[in-house]
Design goal:
mainly alpha
Length: 138
């Protein structure tokens, strides 16, 4: 597999390692990555995407923990098997939690208090449930 299958949106607000995990999941789901297919090395992908080596290593670690890939010392990293419901749920939950932690940390650094953030977040979630997610400035 070549590294051109991956693309990163640095402005999305989604951590790069989460983008990599989600892209591997999508490639497996679409049948573009099959059991036995080799992924680029951590160094190769980091270099191509111009991101830190540890970022790619973190994504690969998550994929390995989910049982989607296997890294064989000196041989490379390979797709293990198709994504099943339990593994997919694990990765989605982990991805969501990581994004929430990053978001909360950003709010904390901006000086927001937990009650302020919770109130605003709940308001947006209620709008989302009604299918009306948009930026509303009152």
């Amino acid at each position: 597999m070549n590294t051109q299958s991956f693309s990163i949106d640095f402005r999305s607000g989604i951590p790069v390692y989460i983008q990599i995990v989600e892209q591997v999941q999508a490639l497996i789901a679409r049948g573009e990555l099959l059991p036995g297919d080799q992924l680029p090395t951590v160094r190769q992908l980091a270099s191509e995407l111009r991101v830190n080596f540890n970022t790619i290593a973190r994504a690969y670690r998550m994929l390995d923990e989910a049982g989607l890939i296997s890294t064989q010392q000196g041989r490379g990293t390979y797709i293990m098997e198709s994504l099943n419901g339990e593994r997919s749920k694990f990765l989605k939950t982990r991805s969501l939690e990581d994004q929430i932690v990053g978001f909360i940390e950003s709010l904390r650094q901006q000086g927001y208090q937990p009650d302020e953030a919770a109130s605003a977040i709940n308001k947006v979630i209620e709008s989302w449930k009604l299918g009306q997610v948009s930026r509303q400035f009152e």
